[in-house]
Amino acid sequence: MKAASIRRASMDAIVAQAECEFPFECCGFIIGDGSVEEVRPVANIQNRMHAEDAAAFPRDARTAFLMEPKEHLAVMLEVDRRKLAIRAVYHSHPDHDAYFSATDRAQACSFDPSEPDYPDIVYIVTSIRAGKFAHAAAFAWDFEKKEFAETKLTVE
Ligand SMILES: [Zn+2]
Question: From the CA of 35, how far away is ligand 1's center (Å)?
Fold first, then answer.
C-alpha cells in the first residue's frame, strides 16, 4: 500500500489552513512531481450548499466538505498543463479524530463505489481540536482488500 511522504512546508500549510478555517473543514490538494511539491487549497462550499438546500446537503461545513468546482478544475488543469501529478487530497476534521469516515470514502469513490477516483494517491486527514492541530493521518487504497486503510505518514 502506498505510504505518504510529504514535506514539512506542505504539512505546515495544511495545518495553518485547517486551523484558520476551524470550526469548518478545509480541503485541497498536494500536487507535484520529482522535486516539485506544492499545496493547492480549495474553498469548501459545504456551508453555501447547506444554506441553499438543506435537504440535499444535510451537513454543514463543520462535518463535511465540498470542493468549489471551478477551483477544483483549475487544479486539474494546472496539473495537466505543468505535467505534474496529484499526490494527495487533504481535508480537516474539526473537533473529531483523524479517521477516514464512510462519507470520506464515498466522496473519494465518487464515480465508482468499488474504486477511488484517484487510486494511486494518499488521502490526508488532520484533526483540529479547539482550533489547534492535534493529529494527522494518511489513508490509501489497498488494492488487495479493495478498501481504504491507514498508511504511514512521513513528514520530512
Ligand atoms: Zn472526513
Answer: 29
Per-residue pLDDT of the chain (156 residues; tens, 9 = 90+): 788 899 999 999 999 999 999 999 999 999 999 899 999 999 999 999 999 999 999 999 999 999 999 999 999 999 999 999 999 999 999 999 999 999 999 999 999 999 999 999 999 999 999 999 999 999 999 999 999 999 999 999
Grid cell, residue 99, equals: 479517521
CA of 99 to the centre of ligand 1 (A): 7
CA of 104 to the centre of ligand 1 (A): 5
pTM greater than 0.85: yes
Ligand 1 center to 125 CA (angstroms): 7
Q: Strands across the sheet with 147-151, in order?
A: 36-42, 27-33, 85-94, 122-129, 132-142, 147-151
